[in-house]
Amino acid sequence: MVCNTYMDEYEKLVIRMTTPRVVIDNAVCPTATIVKFDSARKHGILLEAVQVLTDLNLSIKKAYISSDGRWFMDVFHVTDLKGNKLTDESVINYIEQSLGTIHNGRTKSYDGLTALELTGTDRVGLLSEVFAVLADLQCNVVEAKVWTHNGRIACLIHVKDRNSGTPIEDSQQIDQIEARLRNVLKGDNDIRSAKTTVSMAVTHTERRLHQMMFADRDYKREAILKNSSDAPAVTVQNWLERGYSVVNVQCKDRTKLLFDVVCTLTDMEYVVFHATINTARDRAYLEFYIRHTDGTPISSEPERQRVIQCLQAAVKRRASEGVMLELCASDRQDLLADVTRTFRENGLNVTRAEISTNVDMALNVFHVTDAIGNPADPKIIESVRQKIGIGNLKVKELPALKYHKEAEREEQAAGVAGTVLLSLGSLVKRNLYNLGLIRSYS
């Protein structure tokens, strides 16, 4: 009896120690909602937490991440895209539930769909050819995301069989899809081998796109960023006394920025032990104290340069280049093939795309430029709208992040992350202050 009681208490302790603790507070900060997340430290846990917040399109204004032994203590200052605190109880409850069960590896379900992964050399009209092939092979596109960067393209497309409405499982049909798409992706002069994969795997779409482009080595041509005024500034230095590599990223702020950076560090097998994220006006300042999963810092100059290149690429992949067009229309067979063919015939190149269907409605967003990457001629855009349907295809403005003057003054007073190494003691004290565990970190 005593033994059973002891085991019951021990199991309760284990559950308590391994279950994340979540506190959401709207009273402490006048400009943002505070989300506190404490959990047992494991590789990838920070990425999962950030993923929950960014999947809701929340803007992370500040964040403090610190680990103590086997425990993580994270604080996020978040707002909606309009710069307002979170007041919707359903959103707050979702965050609490999702973060509280994060160790279960929650992800979006794509039951009943087949995933197509495509990478290759980007060119004008490529997406039109891809969707034309899928239409010809009787595949209905249910959801898709397309990224382009440094002349490469990555697509993650979820489809089902048009006739049966079920996943595509027939091996001969899968082989045919792969072969046809591979020929399209290769084109006439692909300098690297195009890749196509058909699977039933369930993966977070945007993380998978990062992984696909990383595997495709899209970061290899990052030297062109030096001539760009909005190029992310990335520095990496070793703090040998403490055994950390210190990574600083400074760039224009945008939604999902923290996710993109943490995703890349995680998939490169680095562990974030401490971090400070600040935003001021339209700029973001991110500082990370990292080690390899084996506990060692970055060990060579080539590795340091590779980290810099990969983080620059991670920031730039999601850059919204070109005019944003939103297509909202009744879904029908060959809709995507027809729309993207119209883009191609008018010399428009799709740099990013998000495809989704809801019941019988298609809601698709395209970012388009001219054939060489310059802003598209407004007259051509209007001509394309006339052909597709003025009411169906609309020009949308990119959503601008909102900032509070109070938050800006607070950031200026606190200072922002730079390239100078901070003492670990100061960093930890600041994080403990923001966790509410000490009264001052001065």
TrEMBL record:
Signal sequence, start to end: none
Pfam families: ACT, ACT_ACR9_3rd
UniProt cross-references to PROSITE patterns, sorted A to Z: ACT (PS51671)
Residue ranges occupied by any ACT domain in the UniProt entry: 34-109, 115-199, 324-400
Organism: Erythroxylum novogranatense
SUPFAM superfamilies on file: ACT-like
Protein's UniProt name: ACT domain-containing protein ACR
Function statement: Binds amino acids.
Keyword vocabulary terms for this entry: Repeat
GO molecular function: amino acid binding
Residue ranges crossing the lipid bilayer per the database entry: none
Highest taxon of source: Eukaryota
